From TrEMBL:
Highest taxon listed in the record's lineage: Bacteria
SMART domains named among the record's database cross-references: Y1_Tnp (SM01321)
Positions of the Transposase IS200-like domain: 14-134
Protein name (Swiss-Prot/TrEMBL): IS200/IS605 family transposase
InterPro entries xref list: Transposase_17, Transposase_17_sf
Pfam family, one: Y1_Tnp
């Protein structure tokens, strides 16, 4: 099986868990300029640090952002996502009053949905083959 790089350790475990997250603005409105994306990355790095999550990569366009995160097993991705979206929406509203026109119903910047995909390590076919080839006890 492929070697894992950057294995992190916890008190009782070793892990290499990565997820690709995508958040889309409400109604896919074109909200972000470069300065907003730069600030979003800073805010999201801070939120990730609070969860002991590493924000490995961040990028975005005017209506969505992509994050690659390395997270410990104790973190529920849904809670991380909720915090990332909530804190970033609140801070941007406070720091950039001109964005208020893009906030819809209940002051929401982000769509209620998101994408989360597991990434990293070996492809599933290789993992499946590795498991199949393990010797069973006699």
């Amino acid at each position: 099986m492929a070697e894992y790089q950057n294995i992190r350790t916890g008190r009782h475990c070793a892990f290499a868990l990565h997820a690709h997250l995508v958040f889309v603005t409400k109604y896919r409105h074109k909200v972000f300029a470069d300065r907003h994306l730069t600030r979003l990355e800073e805010i999201m790095r801070d939120v990730c640090a609070d969860f002991e999550v590493e924000l490995v990569e961040f990028n975005g366009e005017n209506n969505h952002v992509h994050l690659l995160v390395n997270f410990p097993p104790k973190v529920a991705l849904s809670k991380l996502v909720n915090s990332l979206k909530g804190v970033s929406s609140r801070r941007l509203r406070q720091e950039y009053p001109e964005l208020v026109k893009h906030y819809w119903r209940a002051q929401r910047l982000w769509s209620g949905s998101y994408f989360a995909g597991s990434v990293g390590g070996a492809p599933l076919s290789i993992v499946r083959q590795y498991i199949e080839q393990q010797n069973r006890p006699a």
